[in-house]
Amino acid sequence: MSFVKGLKCRECGKNYPKKALHVCSFCFGPLEVDYEYEEIKKVISREKIESRGKTMWRYKELLPLDNEPTVGTQVGYTPLVKADNLAKSLGVDELYIKNDSVNFPTFSFKDRVVSAALSKAKELGFKTVACATTGNLGNSVAAQAVQGNLESYIFMPANLEQGKVIGTSIYGTNVIGINGNYDGVNRMCSEIADKYGWAFVNINIRPYYAEGSKTYGYEIVEQLGWKAPKHVIVPMAGGSLIIKIGKAIKEMAKLGLIDGSDTSLYGAQASGSSPISTAVKNGSDVIKPVIPDTIAHSIAIGNPADGYYSIKAIHESGGWAEDVSDDELIEGIKLLASTEGIFTETAGGVAVAVTKKLLEQERIPRDESIVISITGNGLKTLEAVLDKVEKPRVIEANIESFNEIMEKREACIV
Ligand SMILES: *Cc1c(COP(=O)(O)O)cnc(C)c1O
Ligand SMILES: [Zn+2]
Q1: CA 182 to chain centre
Q2: pTM of this prediction exceeds 0.90
Q3: Residue 414 has pLDDT above 70, yes or no
Q4: What percent of the chain shows pLDDT beyond 90?
Q5: Which residue in 241, 312, 302, 243 sits closest to 275, CA to CA?
Q6: Deepest of 26, 174, 230, 279, by most Cβ within 10 A of its Cβ?
């Protein structure tokens, strides 16, 4: 039983069948999945959702498949953590961390989009899946392709962190490192997709892929007790996740699952790759592509596919965007780890540091509910903090050696 009508152009509204298509052949606008909301409204309810398994597929009526999912059926429903220690440190009343650093199976929010994309790819009859990746997407496509018995090809910039590279090749996929940045990889992959006829999750089946991101938003709302948060901070690469969080909350209001939605969306980027936040700060809706130069590789996209629409989503929600330096993002990683015991990757450090900045700028008030999107795991980007944490003190294996440390320590404290 499916509620998917087909694909629809976001610009001119022209309808397309449910195939591996992503751009409108008339106006070149992006295609989006179109649902029968009136039909969904008749069958969906809070109780029905709550009665289902704790995975992203509990919202299956709002996801782009014709049949039950076949890949990544355990993905999602990650913790929403009430972050009282970090709240105190930042000087705010009500703060939450939506923690996809522990998503299954590859510890980032990309497991959501990949579960949707590969399940759809199987429905469409593809045998080979592929992606252009800044790291996390490759991890997830490789892992979930194994689970779904699909052949996979992962194309990534050659300079990614070891955790991201090994965290892809371990699954026995075909990994291709490419000299240059993500934007070059992505351009090349568009040509490969045409020639080889594979399902490129973030290119020719992007409309289905992107819908998976909505579940991050649904979960936040459900976990807050069926209430939309007032402010959400989201790290941006291509700009898709932030749009889909906004869409998810609006859909829940439209379907009567929540009373209303007045959530403001705030985009977070690293200053070394900040085409979206720069446009927002300049009051422009035009993206000026950049050449990325930041340690936040997972969100280092210089020419974001959804740049224009993410700016629109931010403006319409009454939100804003900011960017932070590599030093600030490292401080963000350390602040989250030392207050909440959550070790996030560079993109998460960006989200925390941008939140701090927006509070200081009084763009976000301190007395309303705030959710910080933590989208990836710090164990994959150890290089970022390698020289920024205290090294363990090495001693001999006897109590005297340890006593010596403690004595010095007491001297310090006094
Ligand atoms: C991909 C990614 C994002 C942002 O994704 P977009 O939807 O492309 O904006 C954020 N955080 C992490 C860790 C990611 O891997
Ligand atoms: Zn069109």
Answers
A1: 16
A2: yes
A3: no
A4: 95
A5: 302
A6: 279
Q: For all residues of the chain together, what is the average pLDDT? A: 96
376 CB less than 6 Å from ligand 1?
Answer: yes
Ligand nearest to the CA of residue 213, numbered in listed order: 1
Q: How far does the centroid of ligand 1 lie from the alpha carbon of residue 275, in Å?
A: 14
Separation in Å, CA 46 to CA 64, 70, 244, 260, 285: 20, 24, 20, 15, 37
Q: Indicate if ligand 1 lies below 6 Å from the C-beta of 305.
A: no
pLDDT tens-place string over residues 337-368:
999 999 999 999 999 999 999 999 999 999 99
**Cα separation values, 161 from 103, 164, 317, Å:** 19, 5, 34
Of all protein residues, the one whose alpha carbon is nearest to atom 12 of ligand 1 is: 375
Backbone angles phi, psi at 327, to 5 degrees: -65, -40
Quick one: average pLDDT of 21-45? 97
